Amino acid sequence: MSQLFEVHPQNPQPRLLKQAAQILHDGGIAAVPTDSSYALVCHLDDKGAAERLRRIRGVDEKHHLTLLCRDLSELASYARVDNRQYRLLKLGTPGPYTFILEATKEVPRRVSHPSRRTIGLRVPAHVVTQELLALLGQPLLATTLIPPGESEPLNDAQEIRERFQKQLQAVVDAGACPMQPTTVIDLSGDEALLVRSGRGDPARLGL
Q1: Could you tell me the pTM of the whole model?
Q2: Does 3.90.870.10 match the CATH number of domain 3-205?
């Protein structure tokens, strides 16, 4: 049975977030709110948790998972970023954009793309997620909470808990999120490539 943590969306209770962070630290999987939709998250260094995350989402190792980072400097520790890429990252962070970049050795090989050695990275503009990341002191491995066989992300924490209570260890309820996934930009090549148009406006990045 997953634990439900009902937190204030602007002033989340530290005591509840500490409990959720401990569950993640101990290898649990949680559903958390972001500035695009709810996401499934787990500890970056837990191999078993990452495998369960993929199973719940119904994706294989070629599906790009994303690292949720606190800020641009943390993001740069996990991806190779040149000046051109950095300018675009600065325009889109924090915000509902996921950037595909070449992973550094800080990223376990099993969570990056098997042939391209790339990873999705983003800095969410959501107080609750940011507080959770600060408590953990490192990025979270994440994927949009879209159930297998469906096309829309889930938005209601109570429904998420009912549908996934045997698979998730925690659900952080901060109220409804937007029901739109992030805009995905691939920066791993010579030119920025729009992979998926979502909540983030590509025009903000000049695309």
Answers
A1: 0.94
A2: yes
